[in-house]
């Protein structure tokens, strides 16, 4: 790695991606890239983990069409306004014959799901109605694209749930946040804050938008997942009603949740990787353990036999293991597997066999230790439980240092100039005054009011750093990917 | 079920699909349907099983873009001729602004993969190069659509492999056939024949096409997967070359393989289901075992406790189990779960508890037996190993009765009228005379020459039933879905 994470984050990020061939951006359609083998294997594991978490909470999968007819798309006014500029349209077939109607390549699928919910949901007995779909969505981004973080095609899961009333729907928002903590927080090891997004930065058509943002080591927000309370707006537009126990018809309250798999992968790269290259959370590494035999002339057979024995045992124990017996020096192999982010490396040579030991290199701590062969399995199990936790606690330290409490515009300007995130008491993220205050911040610092902290309440008598009015919340202010 | 499989196959097939809500065809884009919960859960299992089989054989996944620019699409002459009539084109974005170039919604991805192979494959050391992608493809079908069997969007896997020469590429075709046997044959329990397709019915751009066709109980072919030897045609068009050991540049020999997940699911419905409804192979059933407690007044608690205990134990053993404690009669529940195709049902009531037994209904044989509770796990394991084998052997019997050897056009016409498949000695599937003979068959019977049997060789001196020339192969002749 030529670039260092601390010195030039963007160059370093691109280098981790390029050296590991995670994507190929030479595909000849602007904004469309290929997710290559090493990355694709992890993406598949991430999908499985996320789908299992949703299944556990009684969501069921659907395979929905990728095209949405324009008449659906135009049904909810705010939604269409927000998304139309970004839509790709399918208009022709064959030798250029026009289709009867234009079809949107789905930028998100509310307008496909809810017309069906209108048919599928009949009674209060059908609620809650919890469904999800895994797939790709399409948005004609005009800003510069960046692998994983912004493109015209990305891979995600979207859930769409219907509840009988606001209370139960808002409880579901809490459930989505729990799922985010379990998967993105614990299994992928990413620290984040859940924000309520300002009124002027909500999902088009939502009543409220909540987002899990992490912060990179160069002080930028990175959104990983959002969950939206849609109220009854889409239900009205698509006639999603249910019969109550007393026989009346009521509109369903809808929610949707969108963890972005390719975006989360990019976040994993940004947050966990270091100056040696990629570091992958244990559960999503395509290869969790690599075995490197140290081949010394005359002892090759003995070493390979032992290495194969270890390989077989670890495979039996359920790990993804690889034996690297290629014709390269151990040094080259160490370099490559560390760069690729394999969590555990086992080195074994003739001396180790003599001493009934192996060397274990762990990528969470970048340390090497010798372990008795009889303790190998136990040690691996121990590292497995510690690995992602260690990645996370390292990331949490960085995360915490990026946030600086500020109490005035002067302080905020200084913090933003230093490429950090400012945390400030703020008048309101839900009214015109707040919107004006956020515009002022944007003009003076170039940074955005990202949203209100859901947990921490401001102290009494604190004033908004812009308007001087009584503060109603803490907001986080900074630049974002 | 109103219709019987034996009496009206098509009506029965639609009824199995509709009663189980496997799809919804009310989506408002022609030819695009929704694969619903019960079906979607199995599709996900089928994808996992297939991907694991490919991973085992050293294929690696990619996530490729869904759009292919028209300049790629037009590079291989036969391919473009075959596929252009079926392409959907993305031409606009936003408020109707034209894109710089038209983008095809991929109908298949040769022209996306191979331009990248030209960049990725450099040397003989890179070969074989084995990749796959799971996803959806788009074809503007003009024939009447039918759920699972013909639509404008379908879900499949496509593999694309590069080899140094014809011999190794053709060996890979054998490997694809092995994978088909392992997965479609054994895990999904579908009997099929591997045909070499006639020259006039090949994949557009292929040198040879091989297809795994099953035969439905109403005597029609149903294609489940195809594998194609592409020779060096696409390699020439996309400049896929490698450096040999002696330093010369050679064109790679390409193969592609396409098992269709939604089509195979339809095949499973068609082949395994019966007059009670769906029957699902054990490994892909969303619920493998359902427990129905027989609730008699005053004994509910005791029965539910025992049922929950069994549920917990079977879950621990790794099965997908459900306890159906809804407020419905046991009879209604039996009817529903049999219709949904759950492989095993366990009924337990107060009398069973007294006798330390449970009743086990198995959907492969449609029989019920009493089993000592201590033998439950062992019995389930036994049924698990037998279940899909039983489905398959039942299907094989039906399959065999659909094929009738014929030795003349008169015999063939009779067989086709009886809605069976004729098997006949034939001049050639690789020349003009054969094509003319196949046209004559089509004109006289309405049936197609589906392809040549790869295994059985004709007896000496046999003559083609159309041209009277020496036969070079046995072909199967019939109608198809």
Quickly list its features.
481 residues; 36% helix; Translation Initiation Factor IF3; BirA Bifunctional Protein, domain 2; 3 domains; Rossmann fold; alpha+beta; homodimer
Question: If you had to describe this structure to a student in words, what would you say it looks like?
Answer:
Chain A has 481 residues and is an alpha+beta fold. Chain A folds into 3 domains: 9-272, BirA Bifunctional Protein, domain 2, CATH 3.30.930.10; 287-382, Anticodon-binding domain (Rossmann fold, 3-Layer(aba) Sandwich), CATH 3.40.50; 403-480, Translation Initiation Factor IF3 (2-Layer Sandwich), CATH 3.30.110.30. Chain A is 36% helix and 27% strand. Chain A has 14 helices and 23 strands. The first copy, chain A, has helices at 9-19, 37-56, 70-73, 77-83, 110-120, 166-187, 233-238, 261-272, 300-316, 330-340, 350-354, 376-401, 409-417, 432-445; strands at 23-24, 34-35, 60-61, 67-69, 88-93, 97-105, 129-138, 153-163, 193-196, 208-215, 220-231, 241-243, 249-251, 253-259, 289-293, 321-323, 344-348, 357-362, 367-372, 403-405, 421-426, 448-453, 473-480. A 5-stranded mixed β-barrel of chain A has the order 9-10-11-23-22. In chain A, strands 16-15-17-18-19 form a 5-stranded mixed beta sheet, with helices on both faces. The longest helix of chain A has 26 residues, at 376-401. Chain A is globular. Chains A and B meet through strand 2, helix 2, strand 3, strand 4 and strand 5 of A and strand 2, helix 2, strand 3, strand 4 and strand 5 of B. Strand 5 (88-93) of chain A pairs antiparallel with strand 5 of chain B, so a sheet runs across the interface.
